[in-house]
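ARCHIVE CARD
CATEGORY: sequence design from structure
SOURCE FIELD: tokenized fold
FIELD CONTENT:
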């Protein structure tokens, strides 16, 4: 496969995609290939547009030129995002890759808007488009090249989980559609004298704008703080639970500082009667080993769980049974009993799912649980905190 040939030829140790240097090499290779292919396509389409007097083909040509510039930005994005951490950016510069993808998306939109204007002028002042076999064949070749480039960028983007290269892949696939529309316009000129070139050019331009908008939407999401990868969430929770004396986990928060650059924190429930020194050794080991295995920075906060007394265990199990009646309540955590004498406080957090069934007022949920406990255990007061998932 030509893809594997390029990767194995230009990238040393190509299988180590978790390595920052290898990942950077993938990004630069994708950018260089993008520049080469798009410059070839620009030359082909500009030549065809000149021969056929087609505004649609000329629009498509300059779209490819902007794609070449986008590939150059992608290269700089990978270079800059790979800079080491400094005093001002202690978690590195990985988010620059997202910014470079965003710039590419805006450039795509700009080209589309410019050719909406050109196509509209062409509709108002139509000129004849002439079909010639050789330009038509060249246009078909350009479509095949774009299909290959889209596939190439997708394979690399998926392999290294790069939003910039995935955006380039979508952009190239959009170009396949626009170039196909242009080819149809050119072919139609052989059978009709209707001036449809401007209309086809408008369709092409609108599709370019739509592609750019879609790319903006996809690339801005991680900058705004999108939900983390479910597989990463599952891996962290499963690995933390694999250590001795950890009874449960909650409040997992993952901050994304760029592809492969994450900081995570999680709360781990432990028996309240375990030695502080012993649990510290376990937690310290878990933080170190999981951080290394998943290539992130993990902090584990410990929450002592005290349900060893019969009465407390009874109430705890009663609450667990109660919350199963409500689909929007997922779990409870940080359960503890505070106070002396007969009147005591039950303190715990309730995790509420993001659901249409969930009451908008958190007091409704706390009142339901408090009322139930008060009926069976009138000497206990409930202090409940409503919690939610961040992952």
């Amino acid at each position: 496969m030509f893809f594997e040939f390029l990767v194995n030829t230009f990238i040393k140790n190509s299988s180590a995609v978790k390595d920052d240097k290898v990942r950077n090499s993938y990004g630069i290779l994708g950018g260089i290939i993008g520049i080469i292919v798009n410059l070839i396509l620009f030359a082909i389409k500009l030549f065809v547009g000149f021969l056929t007097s087609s505004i649609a083909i000329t629009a498509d040509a300059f779209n490819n030129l902007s794609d070449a510039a986008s590939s150059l930005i992608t290269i700089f994005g990978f270079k800059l995002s790979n800079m080491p951490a400094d005093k001002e950016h202690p978690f590195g510069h990985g988010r620059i890759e997202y910014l470079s993808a965003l710039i590419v998306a805006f450039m795509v939109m700009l080209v589309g808007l410019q050719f909406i204007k050109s196509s509209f002028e062409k509709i108002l002042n139509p000129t004849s488009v002439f079909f010639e076999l050789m330009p038509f064949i060249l246009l078909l070749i350009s479509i095949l090249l774009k299909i290959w480039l889209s596939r190439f960028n997708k394979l690399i983007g998926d392999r290294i989980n790069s939003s910039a290269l995935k955006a380039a892949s979508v952009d190239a696939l959009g170009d396949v559609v626009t170039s196909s529309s242009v080819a149809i316009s050119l072919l139609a000129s052989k059978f009709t004298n209707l001036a449809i070139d401007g209309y086809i050019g408008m369709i092409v331009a609108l599709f370019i704008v739509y592609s750019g908008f879609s790319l903006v939407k996809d690339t801005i999401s991680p900058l705004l703080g999108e939900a983390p990868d479910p597989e990463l969430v599952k891996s962290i929770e499963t690995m933390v639970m694999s250590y001795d004396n950890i009874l449960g986990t909650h409040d997992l928060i993952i901050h994304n500082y760029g592809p492969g650059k994450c900081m995570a924190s999680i709360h781990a429930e432990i028996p309240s009667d375990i030695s502080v020194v012993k649990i510290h050794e376990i937690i310290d080991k878990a933080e170190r080993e999981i951080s290394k295995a998943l290539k992130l920075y993990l902090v584990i906060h410990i929450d002592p769980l005290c349900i060893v007394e019969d009465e407390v265990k009874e109430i705890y199990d009663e609450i667990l049974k109660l919350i199963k009646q409500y689909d929007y309540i997922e779990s409870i955590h940080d359960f503890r009993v505070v106070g002396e004498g007969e009147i005591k406080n039950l303190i715990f957090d309730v995790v509420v799912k993001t659901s249409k069934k969930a009451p908008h007022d958190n007091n409704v949920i706390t009142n339901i649980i408090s009322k139930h406990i008060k009926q069976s255990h009138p000497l206990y007061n409930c202090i409940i905190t409503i919690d939610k998932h961040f992952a």
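CARD ANNOTATION: The CA atoms of residues 19 and 345 lie 51 Å apart. The chain has three domains: 2-224, 227-305, 306-391.
SHELF: design records, drawer C
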